[in-house]
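Hi F.,

I've been meaning to write this up properly since the lab meeting, where we talked about keeping a consistent format for the predictions we share between groups. The idea is simple: the sequence comes first, exactly as it goes in, then the structure tokens exactly as they come out, then a line or two of notes. No screenshots and no reformatting. I'm using this chain as the first example so we have something concrete to point to.
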Amino acid sequence: MITKPPTPRNSVEEPAPGFFKLAVLANYFGAVLVIAAVCFLVYGLAWNFSTGRYLRGFADAIVPVDGSSQEKSEALLAWFHHEPARSLAPGDLGTLRDPVWILQNSQLLKTCGSASNAFINLAETAGIKTRRLLLLDASGGAKHVVAEVQWGKRWVVVDPSLGLVFRDGLRKALSKEDLRDPLIFHDAIGHMPGYSGIYTFEHTHYIRLERVPLLGAALRQVLDRLFPSWEGALDWAYVLENPSLWPMLASILMLLLGVLIRWFVYLYCSHPVVGHQIVGTRQRLMNTRRALLRRSA
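Output, unedited:
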């Protein structure tokens, strides 16, 4: 609650009442944002727990518990390659990124983006380090999506939509650096029925900042100059492609915005020119208690 104390003599003229009302509304709006942030956080935690429990059970039924990273990822890829019949029901934008829904839909399991999303989520649950890898054309548009899996100290490339590992003629697993060599690339895809030769590895990114309007390209240039390894330092795709994390991210933004609004209102109302101050719930209760004590006395 915001109180408006009497204006002392010789003080600077107070602002118009409209500003005071706006401060009151902003104060309540900030409080609503904080409460909503808590609700979104609880909802996101519950959703993430439910999704994680489902994926853990799913992964445990496929991958060997005590296997190496290579053995676990090959077991997952074998399931993607020979997965049983699934639902063909279409989904909306949210379900198209939901790993639980993807695992129940055979069409999405054969689509490169959603299949990579499901593979990364299952692999992370099984303790396998993975990264989504975007194959881009000369204009910066994504033409295919694959994944990188860490085998020992190497990152090898797999295609979850086909359920296959990129290997050369000697069955050696290949990295994206290896696949930039045209000879090695064509040798590898010769053992991968269904893989198109136009999905080359000349231009690759882990995250497409260029999709951010106006600032995307400039932001990438700044980050590449200041932090050359920023793109591979974190698994950005796991956050961007996991809808159960979105409510928690939204709650952080709402909490920061709500606290910032209430802080600005506090500064405004405690400014000496304005002469207003915010009185919290605790202070109001104390004032009410004092008034009742005075009347009883």
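Notes:
The longest strand covers residues 142-151.
Residues 68-241 form one domain.

If this format works for you, I'll send the rest the same way.

G.
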